[in-house]
Amino acid sequence: MSVYDYKVIGIDGEEISLEKYKGKVLIIANTASKCGFTPQYADLEKLYNEYNKQGLEILGFPCNQFAGQEPGNNKEVKNFCQLNYGVSFPLFEKIDVRGSSAHPLFKYLSEEVPFKGLNLNHPGGQILYNFLKEQFPEYLIGNSIKWNFTKFLIDKEGNVVGRFEPTTEPLDMISEIEKLL
Catalytic residues, which ones? Predict the structure, then answer.
């Protein structure tokens, strides 16, 4: 299997086969508009602007599973992203990314690259870990998505080659992206 075996729904309602992105390097991220990590939209857009012509695509999947931080409908999410962060990379309909209702794509991504822990040396990593331990201890178990802005890096053949937890800034992924381009 590869990511190309999955179909998703674009934010405007059209079905899209991820096979459309064959031969591209992908970043697939679950996103939210009211999260402490929401400013990562700006850096994802920077990466998109810098590397899209070289073959990078960024696919954003809004999700409201984490403390209700993506309450809007698809149109509101799209407008928020465009108005506040100038997002021009593809966005998709709101989905679940963990648990029994998780979209099959995110189940696959989570199984392909297991959770290796949060970077506790990063101030945000320690804060997120403590928050999850106190509020959502079940989130720390297993390989499922832990919070908004978990990012998966996919090579040109559709293989999942990296998982970057929310505390990894998108621009910190540049060396890994450049290797794949």
Answer: 35
